[in-house]
Design a protein that fits this description.
By secondary structure, the protein is α/β, with parallel strands linked by helices. The protein folds into two domains: about 300 residues; about 170 residues, Glucose Oxidase, domain 1 (3-Layer(bba) Sandwich). Helix 22 links the parallel strand 10 and strand 11. The longest helix has 20 residues. The protein starts with a helix and ends in an 11-residue tail after the last helix. Homodimer. It is an enzyme of class 4 (lyase).
């Protein structure tokens, strides 16, 4: 195999002049036989700080065993991860989106520095999933990504719960609707073991999206983290990457305009996270594929919402797996004529071939039939208007409000808005505005789950709207507009809004507007005093200087 493939690793390891490199690798246990085989990097995102990635050491051992069984030599390496759920609502949350770039950069650098022939990337929490695939697109080596899988739901007072319930319980507790003992009981039982957050939040959204993109093997990401078959999936992925190497199938042959459209359709039909917009824009850029924020809305208008998944629905990712999994989702889109079926995937089969093998559990209620969708169109919409000239993202799965108008309550930091919600200062009919939390202004574009969950927990989820130049968690639901662009720190109209200004959400017309003339907005913006940057050095400051708009994926260049 090695002679036929003209392996990159031969430049590193073959010939008398490469004796020093071989000597150093032998110091850590590699043999001449090992070094004569294709070298496959196993990019692991294991970290001890969260359940999402905690079990990835176990899976990496099985991936490596699969690589060895198929005639390769695995070399494992690690990168960073930042937990959104743990850092949520604190200054630490600003590190989350920034970590996506660091993850991609570090995986790329190790693979380039050591001339790997192929790569398997293991992901878990939110930013590790797109971060790994961004790196694979840059490297364009035979490669695939395996998601570590979802956590199982916890049990509280006789029903299934996820981390979403804990965040919303904070609002219930603050408004006197939950006791200290109940909150503690929920906290103790919501997360029963390893795996990423259990609803159709960002992690499971991106795991499904990348199966439809073709960069993860169809149906395998959905196997829950602690399912006995997950180890078998990992072993299979180790063998699979060797087939990709043998056949010289590379990411840029897989990541195309049509495969990205398949990924967007999967997000739309499953009611996925608004963060998918950021991440798929970023992937498209890395792969050299033209994609704009408007493309998401065009696809969303064609695709029915079929999955009854949390946060807007009843079921978890583990329930979807039991019902028939991602393959069943693909079959639904195939039957609807909404899937580009003849596209290659890392399994060596087309996505259409994978979809035709779907098996549906009798009586399942997680994924609706095409004849009875939850909604006739998908879960994400893009709004524009005089408050968001470059667009913003609204998740419409889980609520039915199509129009909302109310007075602005304006906050320049997430913490200030959270205090206002807990203090009962937000009333029915208000539009909460949180700004200076964008990619550059935050920096890092924090998620607002602490605020949005507190609003829902306080019983205001159906009577209050919110907009921000920051992000939302995949667990957010209600009428919430995120990624408002341009952001406040870069002169976006959101910086001109004052308390009491009338703001209108019009979902049908795809508009987000404030009742001000363009002349008044311009006059106000001239008088805005931008806040002093919170970081003047280090990675945060560097990111703030170089990051693009959310409407372009919040990528650095």
């Amino acid at each position: 195999m090695s002679k036929e493939l003209k392996l990159k690793s031969h430049d590193l390891l073959v010939g008398p002049g490469r004796a020093p490199a071989r000597a150093m690798l032998k110091a850590v246990g590699f043999t001449d036989e090992d070094l004569a085989k294709p070298i496959v990097g196993v990019a692991n995102t294991w970290i001890e700080v969260m359940p999402c990635n905690f079990h990835l050491r176990r899976l990496s051992e099985r991936v490596k065993a699969g690589i060895r069984a198929a005639g390769g030599t695995p070399i494992e390496y690690n990168t960073i991860a930042v937990s959104d759920g743990i850092s949520m609502g604190t200054e630490g949350m600003k590190a989350s989106l920034i970590s996506r770039e660091v993850i991609a950069d570090s995986i790329e650098l190790v693979a380039r520095g050591h001339l790997f022939d192929a790569v398997v990337a293991l992901s878990g929490c939110d930013k590790t999933i797109p971060g790994t695939v961004m790196a694979l697109a840059r490297l364009n080596l035979p490669s695939l990504m395996l998601y570590g899988g979802s956590i199982m739901p916890g049990t509280f007072q006789g029903h299934d719960v996820t981390i979403q319930d804990v965040f919303e319980a904070v609002g219930k507790h603050a408004s006197g609707k939950m006791t200290n003992e109940e909150l503690k009981d929920l906290e103790d039982h919501a997360c029963p073991g390893p795996g990423a957050c259990g609803g159709q939040f960002t992690a499971n959204t991106m795991a499904i999206a990348f199966e439809f993109l073709g960069m993860s093997p169809m149906g395998r990401n959905g196997v829950p983290a602690m399912d006995v078959h997950k180890d078998d999936v990992a072993f299979e992925c180790g063998k699979m990457v060797m087939e990709l190497l043998k056949n010289d199938l590379r990411p840029k042959q897989i990541i195309t305009r049509k495969s990205i459209e398949n990924a967007i359709a999967a997000v739309a039909t499953t009611g996925g996270s608004t963060n998918a917009v950021l991440h798929l824009l970023a992937i498209a850029r890395e792969a050299g594929v033209k994609l704009t924020i408007d493309d998401f809305d065009k696809i969303n208008r064609k695709v029915p919402l079929l999955a009854d998944l949390k946060p807007g629905g009843r079921f978890t990712a583990a329930d979807l797996f039991q019902a028939g999994g991602t393959t069943l989702v693909a079959k639904r889109l195939l039957d609807a004529g909404l899937l580009h079926a003849n596209l290659p995937t890392v399994t060596g089969r087309t996505i259409g071939e994978e979809a035709r093998d779907a098996k549906e559990r009798d009586g399942q209620q997680v994924l609706r039939p095409l004849s009875n969708p939850i909604k006739p169109t998908g879960g994400l919409v893009i709004l524009k208007g005089n408050l968001a000239p470059d667009g913003c993202v609204v998740k419409v799965a889980g609520h039915s409000m199509m129009k909302f108008e109310g007075p602005a309550k304006v906050y320049d930091r997430e913490e200030d808005a959270f205090v206002a919600v807990k203090a009962g200062q937000i009333k029915a009919g208000d539009v909460v505005v949180i700004r200076y939390e964008g990619p550059s202004g935050g920096p890092g574009m924090r998620e607002m789950l602490g605020v949005t969950a507190a609003i829902v927990g306080a019983g205001l989820g159906d009577s209050v709207a919110l907009l921000t130049d920051g992000r939302f968690s995949g667990a957010t639901h209600g009428l919430m507009a995120g990624h408002v662009a341009p952001e406040a720190v870069r002169g976006g109209p959101i910086a001109a809004v004052k308390n009491g200004d009338r703001i209108t959400f019009d979902i049908a017309k795809r508009r987000l507007d404030v009742a001000l003339s363009q002349k008044e907005i311009a006059a106000r913006l001239k008088k805005v005093k931008q806040p002093v940057p919170r970081y003047r050095s280090g990675v945060m400051a560097k990111y703030a200087r170089h990051v693009s708009s959310a409407s372009e994926g919040a990528v650095t260049s």
